[in-house]
Design brief:
2 domains, 14 strands, four-stranded antiparallel β-sheet
Length: 189
Amino acid sequence: MRDIILAYEMNGQPLTPDHGFPVRAIVPGWYGASSVKWLNAIDVTQAPDTGHYQEKSYRLILKGQEIGQAEFANVMKVKSVITHPSSDPLSAGMVGVQGVAWTGKGKISRVEISADAGKTWTDTRLTGPELPYAWQSWFYAWEAKPGTYSLMSRATDSAGRIQPMNSVWNKKGYANNAVADHALQIHVS
């Protein structure tokens, strides 16, 4: 529990009510739903919180599952996204493809890219610091030839978790980390 932050300021100013005034818990590696807002007391317990949102809402409820059987939406799943180029048409030639990846367990250890909708994958180069709970930047020099492409990125973390090609449906759509759902359609002329 030593990594949890109790924040009372943001950018040197007191938190606003929208951001959790008077105090907000920030839990590195967990989804924001677990970073509880409006703290005024802390109870240390051995069981999960039984409040409405943690008990009934922030759960990955699969088809046919009861709420109590569903996994909590807490630890972030491994995920990557492409941040450049945009989906605008590109000219043929060398294109720098960039993105970020993150995970709730360990560090990002690998990011791969595909220009053929996931049929083949090539390693990217991880850039910037490699820190737990932080976004990991990555870069790939792509020789773009005329045509239409589905660019995808896929991350792997140091816990061995690999970003899946397709999402696992859950009732509220939480934790969608699917490669295919974050593909970028690009036309090269």
